[in-house]
Amino acid sequence: MTTTGTTPTDHAPTHRTPIRRSRLTKVVATLGPASATPEMIRTLFETGVDVFRLNFSHGSHADHGARVKILRDLEAETGRPIAIMADLQGPKLRIATFANGPIALTAGQKLRLDLSKEPGDSTRVGMPHPEIFAALTPDTDLLLDDGRVRLRVVGCGPEHADTVVVSGTKLSDRKGVNVPGVVLPLSPLTKKDREDLVFALDAGVDWVALSFVQRPEDVAEARRLIGGRASLLSKLEKPQAITHLTEIIELSDGIMVARGDLGVELPAEDVPTLQKRIVRESRRAGKPVIVATQMLESMVGAPAPTRAEASDVATAVYDGADAVMLSAETASGDYPVEAVSMMDRITRRVEHDPLYRTIMDAQHPDPQQTAADAITAAARQVAHTIQAAAIVTYTTSGSTTLRAARERPEQPILCLTSALETARRLQLVFGVHAVHTSDCANFAEMVQKATRAAFDDGLAKDGQRLVITAGVPFGTPGNTNILRIAWVGAE
Description:
M1 Pyruvate Kinase, Domain 3
């Protein structure tokens, strides 16, 4: 095995722990009270977590800051880039409180919602959100308590709504409110979100997940505030966003299918088909897409999932999602390590199914009419034909690697980059094994580094081949115009 004589720069790692995932689909896990210690976080990383999510709906800045430090210390120790996602809470629409505890409901019962701060009773309750009243019209439905209570508006004004109960038997303090089919005049970024965003960016997170996206303007507002300091992931949890799906995907760096919230405002039977549509459209655009919410939810309190949950995870993998996500399973559950292990096992099993490769090969998006897309599409085909061990990309911004991942090759994508922030962000992307390295002076040096990294990290054995894409003049962003086959171990 030959190596180059270059010395890494000060910002590039001098060692790496050879951690290679034996799957292409990535695993996102949420940190919380059940996964807050350095020992547990290390175990989750070694078990299979590629991206760690910080849920800003819970926990203090001190909590999140401590977890970021643990992750960055682990990254420095192993030399392996680790991605951190800050998931912003977004607006939380809730009713107020009742004077004497929960009230009983019956179909046809009248219930007024208003802006009064007085505790509620069986005839009225406060709803401190004038923006909801501004958007209501008669015959609009309101869903409370995650859809357990449905009210229909029969009359409304700027400070109240008169409703009748359509379904539901009980209502208690501070239950959430959803307004299906109505675009609310609300920014997805509350005062709390803006404060959390500043903290997260200063802490150095790699991805920011934006909640309550309704319109392309919501994404544009967040992009302005982020200012390129992190990649932006739009959470699709409001049905209103689907009307602008193409534009939202175009403005975003990545997409999350937040099925739990979608399932509140949409009929349950609509969510699976919508999930497939979002994944398909994101893949076509070359944007990483996560399928999230309730994937292995029974493992919050049980050491094994239901068969239906295992099938649900498998479906997301068959759809070609870049990543699948764990929420309460790892944040507050009793079996966080087992949940990650199960997610890892399911994804590996699906990817070894011949049907999986048949599906992936049948769904390649048409390449754009550019040299870069033509070379990338050819790289996948060549890698398949010669049974290469990996496809290699060299990138600064990540665009070359994203293009390769869009092809959904059967081989891992070895990404070499001198930008640590790019290596971290690409951990979310299908099939990518990112290596942070020093700058390469020329194409020959890059080839030597690629063969060395592929061997050291277990992606290729001596004598196997790599398919390498690059651009000449070397180092010019977006100028992929060369395809080369290299032997691992060859001069």
